[in-house]
Amino acid sequence: MGSLDGFPTWFEVGVSTAAYQIEGAAAEDGRGVSIWDTFSHTPGRTLGGDTGDVACDHYHRWADDLDLMAGLGVDAYRFSLAWPRIQPDGRGKPNLLGLDFYDRLVDGLLERDIAAVPTLFHWDLPQALEDDGGWLNRETSYRFAEYAGIVGDRLGDRVKRWITLNEPIVHMAQGYAFGSHAPGLALGFGALPVAHHQLLGHGLAVQALRSRGAAEIMITNNCTPVWPASDDEADRAAAMIYDGFHNRLFNDPVLTGTYPEFLAEMLGAVVRDGDMATILSPIDALGVNYYNPTRVGAPTQDELPFDMKQIDGVPTTAFGWPVVPDGLHELLTGLKRTYGDGLPPIYITENGCSTEDGTTDRFRIDYLDGHLAAVKRSIDAGVDVRGYFVWSLLDNFEWAEGYSQRFGLVQVDFDTQQRTPKDSYHWLAAALRERG
Q: Binning pLDDT at 50, 70 and 90, where does residue 2 land?
């Protein structure tokens, strides 16, 4: 099989999902409204008007989905908790029926010898908090810590590793700066307070979970190696700026307690005394989501200080994203160079590709094979990578793209909810069996 040959015996392989993308049951058992419910029900916001009202119906079919994971042979399952299912308005007493669902899920995982790795926030903010300003409002950071404490109290006896935030750069940029994701605001640089308040919420949540005995806590950042379009000084300067916004804005504060200098100046009015120390609350690992490198050139318009450029000469996914496995090795070794001894162990918490519908998916097998090889090279180069999670177990609701992009190891017929494992599922299962 080969893809897991030579990996350390402790190396963890898992799959990832997110609540709004798979759970469905949007109005059941006391769940509140999230910003993604509002956004997807607003005409013109999602492709074909698709919503996550039913999605993969995981809320009712979770046991079957856990059986699929057990058949796959994974070590761990990274999923997200739906904040509005636990606190319908984002504050106050919890909804016990929502917590009961996650109790069942965690217990079901442990019965199948699969570690539960919950993410507290994967973009489905309670709408009631958004009505009060969402992540533009500093108060949301404290509501997030309260929510973290609730789930820590309920699940902490069985959950050993927690993830606070998923891809805060994407939530800030697509949700608040450009408006292509919920909550659909187009504030440009006016969205920067969202970055700080998410990070502050992360630090406060770390403290809340730690006070409840959490063994491991991490944050998951979307990271990309940034390539200048040429050796021209203007292109290289644009690439450095983009790297600051996309990577260092969220890595530097949690690893060094500082913002990049030019961003610290832009955030000066938002940061208060003590905030950076809170954000620097120690984490045990860094989650890295990787999909592709980014090529950047000097700006040709006034709105942004950089232009996005196409990467030619490589395959692309159905999403149009360039497939560059070596970019993952470049990213991981670059993180090691940048942060040195300050870099904690790394988990690849998402990596995968969208393809056309179908169960015969050689493209996905080659994609996963190439990226696992890049992880192995990075470990051999001295980067402490502890695990790799495939995005995703199931075809699901792919945010603004609705059901048009299929990332799953398992095909889902959204009319019948029938699950059909794809060739890539069987390939990975065989690799895991061979590893033993």
A: low
Task: Map tokens 């300003």 to a residue.
Answer: 133
Domain total of the chain: 1
- Cα dist from 177 to 174, 243, 357, whole Å: 6, 17, 32
Residue 221, marked binder? no
Chain segment 257-280, per-residue pLDDT in tens: 999 999 999 999 999 999 999 999
Q: Which residues are catalytic?
A: 167, 350
- 6, part of any domain: no
Per-residue model confidence as pLDDT tens digits over 36-67 = 999 999 999 999 999 999 999 999 999 999 99
Answer yes or no: is pLDDT of 24 > 50.
Answer: yes
21 is in an annotated binding site: yes
Residue 143 makes CB contacts below 8 A (sequence gap 6+) with: 90, 91, 129
Range(s) of the domain holding residue 93 = 12-435
Query: What is the 8-class DSSP label of residue 89?
Result: T
CB atoms closer than 10 angstroms to residue 423: 16
The mean of the pLDDT values for the chain is: 97
**28 marked among binding-site residues:** no
CATH of the domain at 299: 3.20.20.80
Q: Is 391 annotated as a binding residue?
A: yes
pLDDT tens digits, one per residue of 318-363: 999 999 999 999 999 999 999 999 999 999 999 999 998 889 999 9
Domain-located, residue 346:
yes
- Quote the strand ranges of 254-330, DSSP E: 285-289, 294-297, 307-309
Torsion region of 411: left, alpha or beta (phi above 0 gives left; psi -120 to 50 gives alpha) = beta
Within a domain: 2? no
Residues 6+ apart with CB under 8 A from 157: none
